[in-house]
């Protein structure tokens, strides 16, 4: 029942807060988000619907179980002081929630923020239905913090939209050069066949600068609003598709852990040192065909397989002996876990999607 969430990311002073003010008509009201040429937004600001304008402290938001922000408590009190909620009685917010984030400052270390910035970003990225990554054409520095951010966005490419904001501050020829430079900088970071949609305009209430492409900017603005509306309309479909995608990841993970466990049991003898045997397997899973056997057995794409290194950490926290083989997790009445998840992926979730497509209420 939760509303779709739209996340605004990007370097500092690119116009993220101005864009939200503009979309919601908050300019010149007491609740407009503070904007300026220097880094201004140091908080994660959640803009949601409410009967009247009011501000909510992060500590209150995290404590309120009716909102979906209570898991943010795990990032500590320092972070909750940097979280703020604003309720606005706006029509659009009845259907969507906006999240404004602190700008990325390339020369600042994460420790200086006083909380795990990347982990918090990841929490919001995992829950966002649409991610606007905003750039200013006059400063396109793609540094380490931005690279890290795009690494975190991996797998969410379909939700990313790139915004080239303040486009009327450049002449046409310059704008074309900047557009090309932006793609050149981002190409290594977004490794997909179909690049994300780029919107070129100036998202603020002032009139476009004279002698710029007014018609183009206006059309881009309308396209962006249509895109936003589409995400709101397709909320249910997107949610089911995401659950299915997550189910596929759970299935792959289960199969891999099962394979590690089976290999471990096969290699163990009465005189073996269990720890040494397993360290051998974890250090070089390819020697035991762990990942290849999953590809051979199932219709899993090699691009969906998790990182081998991640399993060193995983088994460091979860000992291999704490798992049971999948074949042992079946019961006469309850069936098998793996069969249930296969059924959900191949039949149940697609049927649910189909029922929405036909206009039935699922």
Automatic annotation (TrEMBL):
InterPro entries: Dynamin_N, G_DYNAMIN_dom, P-loop_NTPase, TRAFAC_Dynamin-like_GTPase. PROSITE patterns: G_DYNAMIN_2 (PS51718). Gene3D superfamilies: 1.10.268.20, P-loop containing nucleotide triphosphate hydrolases (3.40.50.300). SUPFAM superfamilies: P-loop containing nucleoside triphosphate hydrolases (SSF52540). Keywords: Glycoprotein, Membrane, Sarcoplasmic reticulum, Signal. GO terms for molecular function: GTP binding. It is a peripheral membrane protein. CDD domains: EHD. Pfam families: Dynamin_N (PF00350). It is found in: Sarcoplasmic reticulum lumen; Sarcoplasmic reticulum membrane. Residues 1-241 form the Dynamin-type G domain. This is Sarcalumenin. It comes from Xiphorhynchus elegans (elegant woodcreeper). The gene is Srl.
